[in-house]
Write a structure and sequence with these properties.
Chains A, D: It comes from Haloechinothrix salitolerans. The complex is a heterotetramer, with 2 copies of chain A and 2 copies of chain B. Chain A is an alpha+beta fold. Chain A is built from 11 helices and 10 strands. Chain B folds into 3 domains: about 110 residues, Orthogonal Bundle (Butyryl-Coa Dehydrogenase, subunit A, domain 1); about 110 residues, Butyryl-CoA Dehydrogenase, subunit A, domain 2; about 140 residues, Butyryl-CoA Dehydrogenase, subunit A, domain 3 (Up-down Bundle), CATH 1.20.140.10. Classes of the chains: A alpha+beta, B alpha+beta.
Chain lengths: ~350, ~400, ~400, ~350
């Protein structure tokens, strides 16, 4: 047993964190939020090589695995960075591992990948509704995370041989991507339509790849929320030390203190679940579904609660557009449902109980 | 990071589960109802050598860490023994820590092997009615009289005092108002609980009734200096190191209790049929139990982290307190939901979940309330100003 | 809208509070601990004429409404008597409603005045272990035999069966599988609880121990047709009208219990000093209690609306169920917080809040669980499809 | 006792409700939300005479009191209408009752009034920080609800005679109003600065008027939330009946059903508290502070919970900009803190407990 990050992992965190603070100061982040164009940030991320952390070297990565990706996700969440393209690539890349050329362009170049599944449910090939006629795909999938930022689409589609995964270049004929605006403007979703789009079949077990993607998504979204909780706690504590009422800082009021401490409890709990689930999924632990589900179902609602608490501690100032808190608040709200809400994940946890299937 | 338990830890878990599993729910129902100490369980664990799990090998123990101790108590609790089972041996498992670290060799030789073999029962005599959580405010006073001390005062919530031969007794040898620092002037003894000088009155309480909780009225109790643990006036510091382990062990017990309750709830959900359909098929019943499982698992991770930190000599106050908070909450919630899953039968004692529920309620109060955990975290981790 | 209580209602509230207030917390601690029926309270309320509050004047009662009955039971509960007090008279207050509306004049003359004067104790014999909440699934069968019926079957959770002279007994006279509609073929009796034919076994339970809950094993109980309430086969419909009042009265009792707990918590917060400062000054203690007060007040409004609707002959299923949900929740939460406010002492029986806590837990299960209330509202108010 | 609305009150509700649906269909509301200019709606409200409902006839009102205002607030909340100006006037008008000319222009004309106090705290004259030098006011107040929509400012200011209320024309020299953007764009706040602005002292007891305004604000915001809960419940139930999974409507899943029923419980509870508190404040009941505080502290957090539940029932569709739910969600969030969050109101409730003052 060893319940600590390695020195290397600690270094990765702190380096990435200070890079984010330099590369994207708060003012720029806010401007980006209003304008909605994350290109510059995405390019910087690629330029510094961050997109290849957490992947094997023979894919063109820098080594590490899901724990390292979770550490990055945590920092991105902590910073409120526009990380949808990074997230999509991190989820989709393993399915492209058989196509070395593509996967290395995803990890090293500025061509993001994206798994074409609805962003509001647990990843699952059945929900897409894309048909494969040979290697021509038709059908539509709504609310695909970051489809508007991706070059390489990984598409689950059902053809004569059953469910398979296909690779589609987003520039191919018959591919249409329509962006939708979300409350959380740091990440985007888009609807994707295929009309006889040319695809190449990926050489992997579709079911297994999708099950793995579902767990990766759960862990990384939970990690993003963990970073958010941490940041909101920091903002709230700072505010409560500064802000005075009746001549004393409001942080000395017991109700305020208990609120902040409850956020800390959530942050600590989230941290131990997220890393554990990341390691479990990475190592193929037999209970990895339970661990990833626990992370998603426990941490992301805790993020919303923490956001509510932080808002309450701030009072109305937290609601104003110029204060950063609302960025984290909306991000936490979206994370709650991204790649499956608690109800869906709790269903999976229920199946770990020896209870009969729900009806 | 490496989260895998060692082989030893896995072995301990399985062996404890097996041994504790020999005492079924009916056993505990009866012990709780009759307010009887669970001698049979206690003796079985003594015989198996479990009581010495953290005691150094020199005194007959196994010299293991808090991680192993917490696994032991978690599994005792999870067997359905709950707090009745865990409290019966809790003090033997780690309570002697101040004696092990600070006691004289003579005192240790005289007591520790007898604790390990189960012969010697000790109770923990610290809390007082007027001191609240500030241990420095105790007023039980030990006056020096030649080679002896003479003690007068009052203690409250002393578990197992009925059964105990000895008491680990915290006293003041310098009054609060005369002490230079408020943490000075406290002295610790491990001494006989002489019934002719100490009136022991059980407290009527909501649950965990197989192990008594007592009020002690101490009237001129004479203690030989040989029974003093370490130096005079240093007792407070001797107890300090035990605070975090105490919280972790209670967290482990709460966790086990939650798992026992959840197991019962799942069993009932599968067995109980309404109109030919097990009620466990209902989402309204399943989802809350699934969520409780997730919360217990999440709380367990925090506990494992805390005990690992302690055993590796790292600071763990933040984690130990957080673990206590999370495990007590998740354990209580699981017990509450287990009652609800049983419907009307949850209120009867015969399905055992009402006993778990009553016991789980204690863990949100003791040894430190959830609110005090929040105060601790607010002051010590977040650096917020002190408040009351 | 006019929310002011009538003068009568205010008078009832004050008078009941005064009378119930004569039985102090120690009285209830003892009754609960010894599992003794609270005869003294019951007799005092009988003597005061309160048991007949809803009984028509023709049979010695006051002919008042559910609003007044709910105020009575709320105040009994709020006095600190809690569910032990309320349950001792609950059945007398409104349980005879089916008899009043559908019973023969002879039956009413024979029973109602004796209920009003307190002499006749009746228990409510409806629920069965295998029927769950679907009353039509009961299997206790009354076979016609000349002018009599012969009854066999099993009942569960029958309050006060130990003390009761008679039972309001629901049976099937046509088996479920033979009935044209599942609600047909049930027959209601008000008859002697003949101990030679009915084995009454108390259920061991978590709380409300002054009033027994029992399992009944009925073996060839002979009942004269004179004891039948109304027509054969219509029993289910006779009980229907009582469902909403039952939920409202339980809501009132939960509300009272919550107020009793809150009062105790506030008192402790003011009296208990730590380092010369009452703990009630702490925000962390005050705010949860303030919130509980607000929740109790809000729940009360729903209850008042529901009873007003019922007394004015308007549909009230939505409001009665919502009131039960809100009052049971707010009452339990207040009791839980009262325990927490007391710290360790909350776990002891001597501060009474642990008794309230144990009683309050019952109200989230009985007479209908919170989840079943949600099912009812989902199906009957929101029009969502039926689910299980 | 009579626990029902009168026929007249029922009629008021239904008439206003259908007027709102006609006057401001959903599409227009959404457009307004994006553009942020509520002028047209405010004019229509005035034009139809709705702004004078709930006020005595001799002020230029149509009769009725706080219960009627609460009924209007409920419908405005239910509709998600841009009602900040209406709300401010409804809170501020009683203080202007002594100036018949002004008050009648507020009720009948399109000149809204506004009490110049911070919108994120319980109304209380001490918090403003405006000084009166004779009848010239100086100072600043932040986050004043609808200050940017008002003509008549009612300003608590401390001068030689202590705390007094003053009337200031927003067009007067030395008055500056700067709007702030909120997450909830259906209502706005603005910072108001006075630099020697000309004012006239109002002939009323300032303390009493402010205490009354605090309670009116609590009741009306709670009523607004009540309407929102009702509407969100309606949207969620409708969606759960339409939306299918595994071939059945999701409303038949017990977890969904319990979620919807919990919202109903909240709506019902809110309804009984809001009307009761409105009547209590209107009639000057001795416990009116407790009643109004209960309404605010219980109903507005319930609104946030209901919004969370509604979002969960909708899944990601609820997060998209084109779906109406987010309007109600943000409105509920703002209401939670508008004119004092639960903590502040719970403090007032605590003082109804015979507990010592919190420290």
């Amino acid at each position: 047993m060893r319940w600590e990050l390695s020195d290397e992992q600690e270094l990765l965190c702190s380096t990435f964190r200070s890079w984010l603070e330099r590369a994207m100061p708060a003012a720029e982040l806010r401007a980006l939020f209003d304008a909605g164009d994350p290109t510059a940030f995405e390019n910087a991320l690629v330029g510094e090589g961050w997109t290849s952390v957490g992947f094997p070297e023979d894919w063109g990565g820098q080594g590490g695995g899901l724990v390292e990706l979770a550490l990055l996700a945590e920092q991105l969440g902590r910073h409120g960075a526009p990380s949808a393209a990074w997230l999509s690539s991190a989820i989709a890349a393993p399915a492209l591992a058989g196509s070395r050329d593509v996967v290395s362009r995803v990890l090293e170049g500025s061509e993001a990948a994206c798994l074409v599944v609805p962003g509001d449910h647990v990843i699952d090939g059945g929900s897409g509704g894309v048909r494969a006629d040979g290697t021509a795909l038709s059908g539509a999938v709504t609310s695909v995370v970051s489809a508007d930022r991706a070059r390489h689409l990984v598409v689950p589609a059902v053809g004569a041989k059953g469910l398979r995964l296909f690779h589609v270049d987003v520039h191919a004929d018959g591919v249409q991507v329509r962006r939708r605006t979300l409350l959380d403007r740091t990440r985007g979703v888009a609807d994707v339509t295929f009309v006889g789009a040319a695809a190449s079949e990926l050489n992997c077990d579709a079911g297994e790849a999708l099950r793995d993607a579902a767990l990766r998504a759960a862990v990384l979204v939970a990690a993003d929320t963990l970073g958010g909780i941490d940041r909101m706690l920091e903002l709230a504590v700072e505010y409560s030390k500064q802000r005075k009422q009746f001549g004393v800082s409001i942080g000395s009021f017991q109700a305020v203190k208990h609120a902040a401490s409850s956020m800390l409890v959530q942050a600590e709990a989230a941290r131990s679940i997220v890393y554990y689930a990341a390691a479990s999924v990475d190592q193929g632990h037999e209970d990895r579904v339970l661990h990833a589900a626990t992370a998603k179902a426990q941490v992301t609602p805790a993020g919303v609660e923490a956001a509510d608490t932080a808002l309450t501690m701030h009072g109305a100032i937290g609601y104003t557009w110029e204060h950063d808190l609302h960025l984290f608040y909306k991000r936490a709200k979206l994370n709650e449902h991204l790649f499956g809400g608690s109800a869906e994940w709790n269903e999976r946890i229920a199946s770990a109980l020896p209870l009969l299937a729900a009806g | 990071m490496d989260f895998a338990p060692t082989e030893d830890q896995q072995t301990i878990r399985n062996a404890v589960a097996e041994l504790a599993g020999k005492f079924d729910d009916e056993y505990w129902l009866e012990k709780d109802e009759k307010h009887e100490f669970p001698w049979e369980l206690y003796d079985a664990f003594a015989k198996g050598g479990w009581l010495g799990i953290t005691t150094p090998e020199a005194y007959g123990g196994h010299g293991m860490g808090i991680t192993e101790a917490s696994i032991l108590l978690e599994e005792v609790s999870a067997s359905g023994a709950g707090m009745n089972g865990a409290s019966s041996m809790h003090m033997s498992i780690f309570g002697m820590h101040p004696v092990i670290v600070h006691g004289s060799e003579e005192l240790k030789q005289r007591t520790l092997p007898r604790i390990v073999n189960g012969e010697l029962h000790v109770c923990f005599g610290v809390t007082e009615p007027e001191a609240g959580l500030d241990t420095t405010r105790i007023t039980t006073f030990a006056r020096r009289d030649g080679d002896d001390y003479v003690v007068n005062g009052r203690k409250v919530w002393i578990s197992k005092a009925q059964e105990a031969e000895k008491i680990l007794l915290l006293t003041r040898t310098t009054k609060f108002e005369d002490a230079e620092k408020k943490t000075d002037g406290l002295t610790l003894f491990l001494t006989d609980l002489d019934r002719s000088k100490v009136d022991i009155r059980p407290i009527r309480k909501m649950g965990r009734n197989a192990v008594s909780s007592n009020e002690l009225f101490i009237d001129d109790l004479r203690i030989s200096a040989e029974d003093r643990v370490g130096e005079e006036g240093k007792g407070f510091f001797y107890l300090l190191d035990g605070l975090n382990p105490e919280r972790m062990l209670i967290a482990a017990e709460a966790l086990g209790l939650g798992r026992a309750a959840l197991r019962r709830a799942v069993r009932y959900g599968n067995e109980r049929e309404v109109f030919g359909r097990p009620i466990g098929k209902n989402q309204g019943l399943q989802f809350p139990l699934a969520e409780s499982l997730a919360r217990l698992d999440a709380a367990e991770l925090m506990l494992r982290k805390a005990t690992w930190l302690y055993d590796n000599g790292k600071p763990c106050g933040r984690e130990a307190n957080t673990a206590k908070y999370l495990c007590a909450d998740a354990g209580f919630e699981a017990a509450d939901r287990a009652v609800q899953t049983h419907g009307g039968m949850g209120y009867s004692e015969e399905y055992h979940v009402s006993r778990y529920f009553r016991e789980a309620r204690l863990l949100r109060i003791a040894p430190i309330s959830q609110e005090m955990v929040l105060n601790y975290l607010g002051s010590h981790v977040l650096g917020l100003p002190r408040s009351y």
